[in-house]
Design brief:
Blueprint lengths: L21 H29 L1 H18 L3 H5 L3 H42 L4 H21 L7 H16 L1 H6 L3 H29 L1 H23 L5 H30 L1 H11 L5 H23 L14 E9 L6 E10 L4 E6 L5 H8 L7 E5 L6 E4 L10 H5 L11 H10 L5 H17 L16 H4 L5 H7 L9 H15 L3 E4 L8 H16 L17 E5 L13 E5 L6 E6 L1
Parallel strand pairs: 3-7, 3-8, 5-6, 6-7
Antiparallel strand pairs: 1-2, 1-4, 8-9
Helix pairs in contact: 2-4, 4-10, 4-11, 5-9, 5-10, 6-8, 9-10, 15-16, 15-19
Length: 590
């Protein structure tokens, strides 16, 4: 513009876009300048619509959870909940963001190539800047790494602060009971002070390390002005070229700075990449479970063939296939001794089996093996492959969901669970708070069905709606349902009953209970035992007795809390784990 359009120099008319018409050429350049931001805006919109980093983050998060759910027992022991949460939220976001940074780096290099080409073609003497700028940045990076020491990271202090805050909320009663509130306050004060000091030192390091990138543009622009000013004054270098070159230097230094920062951001992605690579390369239990399932299927087919060749007057012959342990053994860790070995036991379907033994004898491990949570080191636990198995551990657990969703969690969708049967089981277990919450929730579900909502049959207990809109009753229970405060208001006994009710509602053919009576007093234990017996006798708790013959037998294994309890008197079989001889024996049929 300066040299050709507005300079008015001779022999410049042929260089106009519209010959002999500088006004039209200026208008074309003005329109081009207006179109360029529009094109860049459209390109940014297209990139956001494609959302490549978002898709990558979602895929990473889904596969991280899928991988963890398929981990082997040993791999799960190597992972903690904070590490898993960090992998899903932070590491995946950083790694997916690295894709944007890499694409931005490619875009920056494209800009640099265009600007450097213009600078060199306009003024061949400016090639020294094109070569010197990246060289200075490279030398500065080496100098910074050698002379400037980065302060220690503050992640440990931040994690400790989060832990103290969580303990203050979750363990307040313990802290208050032992009068240790000043101790936690002092520890939190020390952690926050260390965190603040490290963050301040880290910010100073960042400012010092980024000094050269901010100083690069003024350095080259000032040097260029000092060196080429005589050529401009003597008209050896056109003024337009001089001004355009200064602008190019400014943009080139800015782009080199952006490229330098983006290279650092891309380099930071290698740390989460390494962490996620380690996560994904840990061993899963899929192959071992596949081999076990194949063995179970083969043993089931063999037993089915043998029974089918017999002349028996029974309804379903596969119900006669026993549940057995064939040469089963479990080794605690690689190279350690055996917890038990050479276990050969068998019970018929439809039995109640009590597992007893001293502390440390292996009751919990045997329950996990029967519940298919763990795999035996050798041998086979042959549960017919067509039977469902559910393991109920003794610690009560529930999800941050509604009561009905918690109770029917083991069913295939809410439609698979009969709401009336859920009500009956809750009342059969004499639960106190859950029945009222459940009735209210089911009423809300019926209201949604009557209103023909898109998600018919699903509970919308988390929506911020008024009581009149949801059809729920006014009062504290409604608010507790909507924001899940009901979880914090039920008693420990109520939570333990909900934990067992979920297994009764699922109604699996084989139910494995780990110390089911530990959470109850004598009266409640007697009630739970009666429910277990009814579940076995009726082939499902709170199901019609007249259709009992159409259902498969129900089998229950449970571990007793103490070896001297009389709870095992309700059992058909008693397995006692002993430290000598055969580690597990079938003592008697009661």
């Amino acid at each position: 513009m300066v040299n050709v359009i507005f300079g008015g120099k001779k022999n410049s008319a042929d260089q106009l876009l519209v010959k002999n018409n500088p006004e039209a050429t200026a208008r074309i350049l003005g329109v081009a300048i207006l179109l360029l931001p529009l094109i860049l805006h459209l390109w940014k919109v297209v990139k956001l619509q494609i959302d490549l980093p978002g898709h990558c983050k979602a895929i990473l998060q889904q596969n991280i959870i899928r991988k963890y759910l398929n981990y082997s027992e040993e791999s799960r022991r190597l992972m903690t909940a904070p590490e898993l949460l960090a992998s899903v939220t932070q590491e995946s976001e950083k790694l997916a963001g690295g894709i944007s940074e890499f694409l931005g780096l490619v875009e920056t290099f494209g800009k640099l190539a265009m600007l450097n080409t213009f600078a060199i073609t306009s003024d061949p003497d400016s090639i020294w800047t094109v070569l010197t700028m990246p060289t200075i940045l490279l030398l500065w990076s080496v100098f910074r790494d050698l002379c400037l020491s980065s302060p220690p990271p503050s992640e440990d202090d931040e994690e400790r602060i989060n832990t103290l805050v969580s303990e203050s909320f979750d363990r307040y009663r313990l802290i208050n009971a032992y009068a240790q509130r000043p101790l936690l306050n002092e520890e939190l004060h020390q952690c926050t002070e260390r965190f603040r000091g490290k963050e301040a030192r880290l910010e100073i390091f960042r400012i010092n390390s980024e000094f050269m990138s901010a100083w690069l543009g003024p350095l080259f622009i000032g040097t260029y002005i000092a060196l080429t000013a005589p050529q401009v004054l003597s008209e050896e270098l056109p003024l337009g070229t001089f001004l355009a070159t200064i602008s190019v230097f400014d943009r080139v230094s800015s782009n080199f700075n952006d490229g330098y920062n983006q290279v650092k951001k891309v380099a930071k992605c290698f740390k989460p990449l390494a962490a996620i690579s380690v996560f994904f390369n840990r061993q899963t239990g899929l192959l071992a479970r596949k081999r076990l399932d194949e063995k179970r299927a083969a043993a089931t087919d063999e037993a089915r063939t043998e029974i089918m060749n017999q002349e028996l007057d029974v309804g379903y012959r596969t119900d006669l296939i026993p549940i057995s342990l064939a040469d089963c053994g479990y080794q605690l860790t690689y190279g350690s001794g055996w917890l038990f070995r050479n276990m050969n036991l068998s019970v018929k379907q439809g039995s109640i089996v009590a597992v007893t033994g001293l502390a440390g004898s292996g009751k919990k491990t045997l329950m996990k093996l029967l519940g298919c949570e763990m795999l035996p080191t050798e041998g086979l636990i042959c549960i017919p492959s067509h039977l469902r198995v559910v393991l109920v551990q003794h610690e009560p657990s529930y999800l941050v969901r509604s009561p009905f969703e918690n109770l029917t969690f083991g069913c295939q969708g809410t439609d698979a669970a009969n709401s009336e049967r859920v009500r009956q089981i809750v009342r059969r277990l004499k639960m106190k708070m859950i029945p009222g919450l459940l009735d209210e929730e089911l009423q809300a579900m019926e209201y949604q069905q009557n209103e023909d909502e898109p998600d018919v049959g699903q509970c919308d207990c988390f929506a911020d709606t008024d009581d009149e809109e949801t059809g729920s009753a006014e009062g504290d229970n409604g608010s507790m349902l909507n924001d899940n405060r009901w979880i914090h208001h039920i008693s420990f006994t109520e939570a333990a009953k909900l934990h067992l009710a979920r297994a009764f509602i699922m109604n699996a053919e084989v139910m494995v209970l780990e110390k089911p009576m530990m959470n109850f007093d004598d009266a409640e234990s007697k009630l739970m035992m009666e429910c277990i017996k009814e579940h076995i006798w009726n082939r499902g708790l709170c199901l019609p007795p007249e259709s009992k013959h159409l259902r498969r037998p129900r089998t229950c294994f449970y571990s007793a809390e103490r070896a001297d309890t009389r709870d095992d008197m309700v059992a058909d079989y008693k397995w006692e784990l002993r430290p000598e001889g055969i580690f597990a024996t079938q003592v008697a049929k009661c």
